[in-house]
Amino acid sequence: MIPMTLDTIAQVVGASLDDVRDPRALVTAPSAVDSREVVPGGLFAATVGARVDGHDYAAGAIAGGAVAVLAARPVGVPALVVEDVQLAIGLLARHLLEHISPTVIGLTGSVGKTTTKDLLAQVLERHAATVATDRSFNNELGLPLTVLRADATTRYLVLEMGAGRKGDLTYLTGLAPPQVGLVLNVGTAHVERMGVGPADVAQAKGELVEALPADGFALLNADDPYVRGMAGRTRAQILWYGESAEAQVRAENVRMADRARPAFELVTPSGHAQVELGLIGEHQVSNALAAAAVATALGLGVTEIADGLHSARRRSAGRLEIVERPDGITIVDDAYNANPESMRAGLRAVKALAGARRTVAVLGAMGQQADASRARHAEVGRLVADLRFDVLIAVGAGDPLAMAEAAQSSNQGVAVHTAEDVAGAIRVAAALLEPGDVVLVKASSEIGLSVCARALAR
C-alpha cells in the first residue's frame, strides 16, 4: 500500500468522512475485511455477509490499529462512508495500480488455481518483489485486497481470479488489468451458475484472455480442448504449455518419485532442466507447467524456473495438506473444496502416497454440480472402489449417499459407511482407523469437513 491520506481516499472512492478528527491521517498498511486481521495503519472494510455484519466490529478494528473504517453507514468511530463498500474497495485498488507499475498476472481455471498461484509466487519471488493472492481471496473483495498489499517496490502482482458466473472475470480484470493471463483448465466447478456444460464454463473463463493487451501474453493449456479453443479470443501472444508435444513449455519423462511426488524434465524455449516437486499427486505436473509458462513469458530461464519449482512447498491450508500422527496414521486434508476433477486427483494422489498401506476416504458433497450432481457423486463412488480404497465414509444426506451406493454396488471390497454430518464422520472414522492408515478428507468447503480433518489429525 502506498501511503494515502483519508481525505485523498475519500475523493477516490466518493466517501464522506464521519467522526474523523484528522482528514490528513495517513493510511500506510493494507486493508482487511476481518477485524482480527487488521494491522496498524490499515483500513477496515466493513462488509455485510450472510452471517456477519462487519459494521458490528468497527470499534474493535480501530482499537486494533485501523486508521478508519470503510463503511456503508456511520459506526461511531472514524469512518469513510460510501454507498457500496465492495465497489469502493475496488476503486481504491484501481487507483493504487494507476500509481505503481507492477506486471499484473491474472490466472483462472476450474481446478488448481490456488496451488498454481502458490507455485508461481515462489518461483517469481526468488527473482523480484512479488505480491500474490492470500489463500483463495480471488473474488470481488479478495482481489482488491491483494492489490492493496502492493507498493512501489512490487515487480510482480499475481492475482488468482475466480469466476462463479459469466461476467465475473470481466469485472475483476477491469479492476486490475492484466498484462499476463493464465488459463489452467475447464471443468464442472460452478457449472450450475454458468450454464449447462463445460462450453459455458469456457465462455466465462475466456473473459480473462479477452482482457489482455496486444503486447501481453496468454498462457494456455494445450492439453485442455476448451482452453485451446480460447486462442481466437485474445490479441495477446500465446504461449502453450502442457504435456502435448507442440507445447512450448512442456513436461517430458514424467514419473512418480518418493512419496507420490512427481518428477519430470521441464522443457522451455531456453532449454531443459530436471524438476522434482515437493507436492503430491501427478496432477501437480500441470500446475507446475502453468507456473513455468508464466515465468518463461516473463523472461526467466529454465534453470531458475526449475530451481524455484523444486524448492516450492504447499502454502495454502486444506489442499492435500499432510499430517503424520505419532501412531503412523497419515491424514490428508483436501477439504477446502471439491468438484469431480479435484476429487479424482485427490483420490489418485492419496492412493499413490499410501502404496501398500490401508486407505480410507472420508468424502462429503461436491457443490454446484447442477442436474448432474447425483451422477457425478456416483462416479466418485465407483472411482473409490476401482482404486481399491479399503474404506469409504460418505458424509451427509442426498448425493453422498449416491456415492456410497455406487461404491457398494461395485463389489470391489471397499467397506462403505455413512455419517449424517461432520460430527458423525469424526466418530465413525475415529472408530475405524488403524495404525498406518492413510486417510483422505475431502468435500466442498461449505460442508465443513476441514473440522473433521483437524480432529482426526490430533
From TrEMBL:
Q: Per the database record, which ranges form the Mur ligase central domain? A: 108-295
Of the GO CC terms on this record, one is: cytoplasm
What metabolic or biological pathway is this protein involved in?
Cell wall biogenesis; peptidoglycan biosynthesis
Q: Which residues form the Mur ligase C-terminal domain?
A: 318-444
Keyword hit for Zinc: no
Q: Where in the cell is it found?
A: Cytoplasm
Please give the Gene Ontology molecular function terms for this protein.
ATP binding; UDP-N-acetylmuramoyl-tripeptide-D-alanyl-D-alanine ligase activity; UDP-N-acetylmuramoylalanyl-D-glutamyl-2,6-diaminopimelate-D-alanyl-D-alanine ligase activity
- EC main class here is ligase
Q: Could you tell me the keywords of this UniProt record?
A: ATP-binding, Cell cycle, Cell division, Cell shape, Cell wall biogenesis/degradation, Cytoplasm, Ligase, Nucleotide-binding, Peptidoglycan synthesis
Similarity comment: family membership: Belongs to the MurCDEF family. MurF subfamily.
Q: What is this protein called?
A: UDP-N-acetylmuramoyl-tripeptide--D-alanyl-D-alanine ligase
